[in-house]
Amino acid sequence: MSAPKIDLDRAVVAITGAARGIGRVTAEEFARRGATVCLGDLDGAAVAVAASAIGSTAHPFRVDVRSRESFAEFVEAVARTAGPIDVLVNNAGVMAAGRFLEERAATTDTVLAVNLAGPMHGMRLVLPGMIDRGRGHIVNVASMLGKTEIPGLATYVASKHAVVGLTAAVRSELTGTGVTLTVVLPSVVNTELSSGIRIPAPLRWVARIEPRDVASAIVATCEQRPKEVAVPRWFAAYPALRPFIPDWIEALARRIIGDDAAITAVDSDAREAYRRRVCDQVSDPG
Fold first, then answer.
1. Does residue 6 sit within a domain?
2. CB half-sphere exposure, 131, CA atoms < 13 A
3. Is position 183 within any domain?
4. Which residues contact 286 (CB under 8 A, 6 or more apart)?
5. Cα 271 to Cα 277: distance, rounded to the nearest angstrom
6. Nearest to 281 by CA among 63, 27, 21
């Protein structure tokens, strides 16, 4: 049985990590379809600017997705402002680059709290109401690194693998409820998340995409409600074909591509600027 249709022209859409990048462009795309968009972000000032730029159908909220209490306040504020959530996009994410053994414990905790606990909080808070109404859709934004791995991003990779598995397992539990889950798997997105990491030319040519590519894929999931979507779509072939590729061929291809860029090709100043901004936000109790 197919899930009930979501009419985006009247839908209430909540998006985390919406002040910048994929989240902000996704809000713009939903608003263009007539939805009321509720932008949540830890950076209250930036998300207010983003919502103002979109227009009267956009509403800004400050939310710390690491905190269940903060996420609950966000969900309640959205309901008071616009109504029950029809679509939730768990997009907020952070990425630490560097060798695993050199990563600070606080950094590890932050990546896992934002990237994994955040979607878990959102799902647990929003799904019960959706199930009661017999309709709704949640999109968890993971990464193609949720299906593979590269050195220098170990904790990020772990968090995205977890989100892929989490989404698939909970989706199965929702069978027959009218509520659906989709995980979106972007490749290399041109956002601040990868700032300071010099993407090797082969990857730039075949895998570099823009936030709007991901946003369009997110919005499209509201129609067919697929289990998962790779962006670009042809990237979905890699995890399926990988078991049949000899290890030595894959190792050679990875060396040619330069898959260790997150260790060996980092602009330390640019990366430090990103790290400082993220750390300043997550340490701000306000």
1. no
2. 14
3. yes
4. none
5. 10
6. 63
Residue 162's nearest CA partner among 175, 180, 149 is 149
End-to-end CA distance of the chain: 45
Tokens of 3: 């899930």
Task: Identify the band that residue 260 occupies on the pLDDT scale cut at 50, 70 and 90.
Answer: confident
Residue 3 is assigned to a structural domain of this protein: no
Query: What CATH number does residue 178 fall under?
Result: 3.40.50.720
Nearest of 157, 141, 140 to residue 149 by alpha carbon: 157
Say if residue 2 is exposed, middle or buried (CB neighbours under 10 Å; 0-12, 13-18, 19+): exposed
Q: Which two tokens stand for residue 200?
A: 């090797």
Reported as a single tens digit per residue, the pLDDT across 177-233 is 999 999 999 988 877 776 666 666 666 556 678 999 999 999 999 999 999 999 988
Contacts of 80 (CB under 8 A, 6+ apart): none
In whole angstroms, give the CA distance from residue 232 to residue 186. Answer: 7
Eight-state DSSP code of residue 176: T
Distance CA 235, CA 206 (A): 10
What residue type is 268 in one-letter code? S
Residue 4 in domain: no
Residue numbers of the domain that contains 108: 12-282
Two tokens, residue 47: 């998300």
Cα–Cα distance, 86 to 6 (Å, whole number): 8
Provide the number of structural domains found in the chain: 1
Report, as residue numbers or ranges, the catalytic residues: 156
* Structure-block tokens of residue 104: 């600070």
